[in-house]
Design brief:
This protein has helices spanning 21-26, 53-69, 102-120, 178-185, 250-271, and strands spanning 7-12, 31-33, 74-79, 131-134, 156-159, 189-190, 209-212, 217-221, 224-228, 234-238, 244-245, 282-283. It is of the alpha+beta class and 284 residues long. A 5-stranded antiparallel β-sheet has the order 7-8-9-10-11, covered by helices on one side. It has a 3-stranded parallel β-sheet with strand order 2-1-3. Strands 4-5 form a two-stranded antiparallel ribbon.
């Protein structure tokens, strides 16, 4: 994005030292905007996580207008916080009182996103902007299995009414497919560092998905879930009912080898600072 003249921004409602986010984004070419960048007069509600989503979105539009006024396109990550515990938000916005549970917090975030889109529609950059709304994870990853797939089923909305016809897309994709898909929508050519794919390209086969915790890595493909655990332990389960599949079958061995190959290849490319495609431009 930077090579094509874009200004890149990371906007977060809390303090960006959490999880080292400001350092990470700042050292990867982003301008960082967090809670400390928002004047007190512009904060109408906050909790331990950060300012309410409305205030963050208001700051985002202000930042986007500044970049647009300077004659540059922008690429931005906005990370909201209101749907975290303690589930508090400004009163009077929705029909669920603040601090009464997750349902209210999620509904408030939905309200704030709707308000943000309505305000964005008034801006001169709206028509040629692609909005991607996606979650990082579900509310809880606990379940009957180590990596319950239903707890990793997140929403992804791609919205650009001037350029994208509404439809439902039901092919299996993963978070690693989001960046190549966005670049495909923008018709960019680039040297790829991504293991994902443009999910909206024609003739795309049913995709794979990757899930995980800080210790266990998961790979979903062809109706099976592979779990790579500590000490090189491997388990394969059926997605339909989470029943275990014997590692003695050719199908389980093949999908397990695929899982290991994906994760080891990604680690090798990262450790050696290599591109996935080093033989020229990867055109999306």
């Amino acid at each position: 994005m930077r090579s094509k003249g874009y200004e890149s921004l990371f906007l977060y409602g809390g303090y960006g030292f959490f999880d080292n986010m400001n350092y990470f984004f700042g050292n990867n070419g982003y301008k960082t905007v967090d809670r400390s960048s928002i004047p007190a007069k512009d904060i109408h509600f906050e909790n331990v996580w950060g300012v309410c989503d409305e205030d963050l979105f208001t700051k985002a539009i202000s930042e986007f207008n500044s970049v647009y006024a300077a004659g540059k396109p922008f690429f931005a990550h906005i990370m909201t916080t209101s749907n975290h515990r303690p589930f508090t938000y400004p009163e009077g916005r929705i029909d669920i009182p603040s601090k009464t549970g997750r349902a209210g917090a999620v509904k408030y975030t939905d309200y704030a996103i709707g308000k943000f889109i309505s305000e964005a529609e008034k801006q001169p950059w709206f028509a040629d902007t692609i909005f991607i709304i996606v979650a990082d994870h579900c509310a809880s990853s606990a379940g009957k299995t180590d990596l319950p797939p239903d707890r990793y089923h997140i929403p992804l909305i791609v919205y650009s009414p001037a350029h994208i016809t509404p439809r439902t897309f039901d092919t299996v994709v993963s978070q690693i497919d989001i960046a190549p898909t966005i670049l495909g929508l923008l018709h960019f050519s680039y040297t790829s560092k991504f293991l994902g794919k443009d999910a909206l390209r024609d003739n795309q086969e049913q995709g794979e998905a990757f899930i995980g915790t800080y210790q266990k890595l998961g790979y979903i493909d062809d109706g099976m879930l592979v779990i790579l655990d500590l000490k090189q332990q491997i388990m394969v389960r059926k997605l339909l009912d989470m029943s275990p599949i014997s590692m003695a079958t050719p199908e389980s061995r093949e999908v397990a080898d695929e899982a290991v190959a994906y994760y080891q290849s990604a680690g090798y490319l990262f450790d050696h600072r290599l591109n996935l495609w080093d033989d020229g431009q990867h055109t999306m």
